[in-house]
Design a protein that fits this description.
Layout lengths: L21 H8 L7 H26 L6 E2 L5 E2 L24 E9 L2 E6 L4 E5 L5 E3 L3 E2 L9 E8 L5 E9 L2
Parallel strand pairs: 5-9, 6-9
Antiparallel strand pairs: 1-2, 3-4, 3-8, 4-5, 6-7, 8-9
Length: 173
């Protein structure tokens, strides 16, 4: 047969004198297994590296690890929001300041806002609300506070240092 101008051509299989069958030729041409021991080791290394880099990103996002803290009723918090995993520090963006009382003299009472001057001279803005308890020797009201009174404020501070009060206690003396 002579080649024609047609794009298809018939190729003859040269068997080199061997008695191979079509099944043997197909088995030789079959795709090989895509994985071997080297591929498995490389894949395991890639997974470990990915886990390490992912851990670095989580640490960067949630801060450096510190000792776990104890929240209400002895629940363990820290690591992730809600204390899902133990250890680490709670996220600083969502964690309120510690509930340390703010103690000082009342500088001014303006509506529901009290300005308290601490011993170091810093003036702290204190927001009060319907849930704020004002105490003196007996339970009092916000209007009972006067400039010059010494108070201890219990509540949480925001990033600007303004305290949202839960309790304002007047100290006599």
């Amino acid at each position: 047969m002579t080649p024609s101008s047609d794009d298809t051509a018939v190729l003859s299989v040269v068997l080199d004198g061997r008695d191979d069958t079509l099944a043997d030729e197909l088995a030789k041409a079959a795709p090989r297994r895509w994985w071997n021991r080297g591929t498995l080791v490389l894949g395991a290394f890639a997974l470990l590296l990915g886990g390490f880099l992912g851990g670095l990103e989580v640490q960067k996002h949630y801060g450096t690890g510190t000792a776990a803290t104890t929240g209400r009723a002895g629940t363990r918090t820290g690591g992730f929001p809600g204390g899902a995993f133990g250890g680490g520090a709670a996220p600083t963006a969502t964690a309120p300041a510690a509930a340390e009382p703010t103690t000082g003299k009342v500088k001014l009472v303006n509506g529901t806002t009290v300005y308290v001057e601490k011993a170091d001279g810093e003036v702290v803005t204190v927001r009060t609300g319907a849930g704020t308890t004002v105490q003196s020797a007996t339970k009092g009201k916000l209007k009972d506070l006067k400039a010059g009174d010494t108070v201890s404020v219990q509540g949480t501070a925001d990033t600007e240092g303004t305290v949202t009060a839960t309790t304002v206690t007047e100290s006599k003396g």
